[in-house]
Design a protein that fits this description.
Distance between the termini: 16 Å
Bound molecules: 2-acetamido-2-deoxy-beta-D-glucopyranose
Shape: globular
CATH class of the largest domain: Alpha Beta
CATH superfamily of the largest domain: Aldolase class I
Length: about 425
């Protein structure tokens, strides 16, 4: 260290190192105080974390992005208790549960079209005849958690009763059923601002005393990244995803804008995964999964897990990519470079714990291309050696990488790597 280095930066460096090295609790506490946990000035310049850990809800959940399954993208309204049970079974039998996919989330259409005599929500008697409590017991018996859906309006989007002005009763009913997660939608909202409609459910959930993950779904309308951190554990930043390349790429770009606001306890939500639903190619789904993981997005599977192709299983079960998403540092990766015509040769990157960096080379052009970068462009040291792990080939490249890095990437495909400082063999 140079002589005369002021003490304060050293102290801050030590604090941030301590935060990186400490158990999650201390990191969350550091995050709650808004301490940017990045090790070098180059990283801090590229990966603004000034809003990380602000406005914490502090309900003890979402220290890493949520993982699981949701019924909507594939089944929409065609759901019933048999499907939910079979999905829980399949999450376990396919090994997805062991990889961290633990929330089984029922979306719209579980409830009857009218409230009951005591003004309470009722499960649809045709499709959920055994009731939600029995389903929760079943799902819990598999070591999984159950999620449910309601709406911060007078109706849900499929015109079932909404929870606006029924927050306390509905939250306590969900808690009595053993529900672990609530996705809270935005239809039929009477034009009342989200900032007024979403906090009452937060308070109602808190009052139940049950830890319930609170997922805000106001479609990014009122820039929730700016205020939702103290309301929910995640907030949708965009409109619904569609199973197309155009929708997926648009949403990735919109979500990218809010990267500095994500952190342990509260995540930007660019909507659920479409992997396995048939509207994109294998390369496009691999890119979708890689970028969602890098952006610290919730990894909520949206396909029929009872009937997946081997390609779908390969993508969703990529443990190394999942580890990037679930890294305890919790800094959202972002788009760093766009080269060539329309900037379609893209480099996305994000810091990980242990001074590592995740890097995605994403070819959004229409033909195979080479994507190369100078290491300092993503915040690495231009004169140091790095060990580079290819997360899709499951191979460590040799020899170590210095100064520049690149690869040939097929159209719409994405390669993903983790850069780790190489251990120096010289003692000098
Ligand atoms: C439950 O839903 C699934 C998926 O839509 C469907 O295939 C199945 O026939 C339904 N079962 C019943 C008993 O309605
Ligand atoms: C309720 O809110 C308080 C204050 O933020 C928090 O400490 C507590 O963990 C919350 N409880 C639940 C069950 O969410
Ligand atoms: C399983 O998925 C394939 C498409 O990948 C589809 O053709 C088939 O009908 C599905 N089977 C069931 C039982 O849903
Ligand atoms: C990428 O670079 C390699 C090595 O320089 C070259 O052989 C290859 O043709 C390039 N690919 C494309 C699509 O430009």
């Amino acid at each position: 260290m140079a002589m005369g280095t002021p003490r304060l930066p050293l102290l801050l460096l030590l604090i941030s190192l301590a935060a990186v090295l400490s158990p999650t609790g201390t990191l969350a506490a550091a995050a709650a105080r808004g301490i940017a946990p990045l090790g070098t000035a180059a990283l801090r310049r590229l990966y603004d974390t000034s809003n990380y850990g602000r406005l914490q809800l502090n309900n003890g959940l979402a220290l890493v992005p949520q993982m699981g399954w949701n019924s909507w993208n594939f089944f929409a309204c065609n759901i019933n208790e048999t499907l939910i049970r079979e999905t829980a079974d399949a999450l376990v039998s396919t090994g997805l549960a062991d990889l961290g996919y633990n929330y089984v989330n029922i979306d719209d259409c579980w409830s009857y079209v009218k409230r009951g005599k005591k003004d309470q929500l009722l499960p649809d008697p045709k499709t959920f005849p055994s009731g939600i409590k029995s389903l929760a017991d079943y799902v819990h018996g598999k070591g999984l958690k159950l999620g449910i859906y309601s709406d911060a309006g007078v109706f849900t989007c499929q015109v079932r009763p909404g929870s606006l002005h029924h927050e306390k009763d509905d939250a306590s009913l969900f808690a009595s059923w053993g529900v672990d997660y609530l996705k809270y939608d935005n239809c039929y909202n009477l034009g009342i601002k989200p900032k007024e409609r979403y906090p009452p459910m937060r308070d109602a959930l808190n009052t139940t005393g049950r830890q319930i993950f609170y997922s805000l779904c106001e479609w990014g309308q009122d820039d929730p990244a700016l205020w939702a951190g103290k309301v929910g554990n995640s907030w949708r930043t965009t409109d619904d995803i569609q199973d197309t390349w155009k929708s997926m790429t648009d949403i990735a770009d919109k979500n990218n804008k809010w990267a500095s606001y994500a952190g342990p306890g509260g995540w930007n939500d660019p909507d659920m995964l479409e992997v396995g639903n048939g509207g994109m190619t294998f390369a496009e789904y691999r890119a979708h999964f890689s970028i969602w993981a890098l952006m610290k997005a919730p990894l909520l599977i949206g396909c029929d897990v009872r009937n997946m192709t081997s390609e779908t299983v390969e993508i969703l079960s990529n443990k190394e990519v999942i580890q990037v998403n679930q890294d305890r540092l919790g800094v959202q990766g972002r788009r760093i470079l766009g080269q060539g015509k329309d900037g379609c040769r893209e480099v996305w990157a994000g810091p990980l714990s242990g001074n590592r960096l995740a890097v995605a080379l994403w070819n959004r052009c229409s033909a195979t291309t080479n994507i190369t970068m100078k290491l300092p462009a993503v915040g690495l040291d231009g004169s140091s050696a790095y060990s580079v792990r290819d997360l899709w080939k499951h191979e460590t490249l040799s020899p170590n990488v210095v100064a520049t890095f690149g690869a040939q990437v097929n159209a719409h495909d994405c390669k993903m790597y983790v850069f780790t400082p190489a251990v120096s063999v010289s003692a000098s």
